[in-house]
Amino acid sequence: MDALQLDTVKLSEDRSYLEILDQTLLPGTIRVLKIGELKDVWEAINVLRVRGAPAIGVTAAYAAAMCAGRIETDDPEAFYREFLREKEYLATARPTAVNLFWALDRMDRTAKAHLCETVPEIKEALFTEAQKIRDEDVAISRGIGEIGFSMLHKGMGILTHCNAGTLATAKYGTATAPMYMALEHGWAGRDLHVYCDETRPLLQGARLTAFEMHNAGIATTLICDNMASIVMKQGKIDIVFVGCDRVARNGDFANKIGTSGVAILAKHYGIPFYVCAPSSTIDMQTPTGEQIPIEQRKPEEVTEMWYRERMAPEGVDVYNPAFDVTDHSLVTGIITEKGLCRAPFGQAFEAIGL
Ligand code: MRU
Hints:
Layout: E1 9-11, E2 18-21, E3 32-35, H1 38-46, H2 53-69, H3 76-90, H4 98-113, H5 119-149, E4 156-160, H6 177-184, E5 192-197, H7 204-215, E6 219-223, H8 228-233, E7 239-242, E8 246-248, E9 253-256, H9 259-269, E10 273-276, E11 282-283, H10 300-303, E12 323-326, E13 333-336, E14 339-341, H11 345-351
Parallel strand pairs: 4-5, 4-7, 5-6, 7-10, 8-11, 10-13
Antiparallel strand pairs: 1-2, 2-3, 8-9, 9-12, 13-14
Helix pairs in contact: 2-3, 2-4, 2-5, 3-4, 4-5, 5-6
The structure holds 5-S-methyl-1-O-phosphono-5-thio-D-ribulose (MRU).
């Protein structure tokens, strides 16, 4: 199954439920869930049925439009109060990816801008905005992909961490978009070699990125996270592409736990390290990585998930941060849909209009 054929999230024709591809079941099972209740959308984001910063943003926008569609009042002010309550609830689903808040704020601005109209008109405007956020996401990924593709040569080895693939966006992904663009430009799958970090503890690299790249026909090698150093030392890696959940104004960025280690290794071995970032993931309100909230997840993800039996002593303390922050000094460049940004990143972000 070509992952590009799979929709991460869709709003049903009658706008009464979301169709969410349940990524917790991949790659073994392809199941699309029909989710009509806000609390179930919250759960789907929280347990990573839908995940990846841009896909979380698109899901939140669709969910806001879906729920707004069934608010029963003719009074725009009463409508807006209920809309805000639902928006604020959804914003608590996960803390790190700024796209969740960015998309909800965009929906909020849309509602406010149409408050002088009738409730049905506000509902329609919200649906149109959600659809726009989704469509823009596809174009953004393609933009990032073309810039990333221009950095590639046939025969290159590419390392990526976690899944910043088509499954993490509306289509193409961010860190995988250069590879998908290479195929669109007529390259053969064997012209590139992608190394996927398995990405403990939730295995997004093994379950999702390896699934995507392998099924796209690209030469793909799965490695455990602790093997990145050896493949770099052996000269198998020419470039690193990773995604991000939030980029601070100074270029520090949060991404899946383990990313900062990959960046340190890349620096050690002199390998270019690029962050693929939709401009919506760059948070100019956050000065440095210090201020990015890091999600802590439950210990069972480390001690027993994926194992047939528990693999850690009962009662042992577990530390399970879902993300880490990579220092901007380790970043060769940040690829956005608006252009490639290099240090000093604050100035580069301003130059592309952020
Ligand atoms: O916890 P996840 O699976 O949502 O984490 C995803 C990542 O860290 C991705 O690299 C990031 O969201 C960018 S997706 C284009």
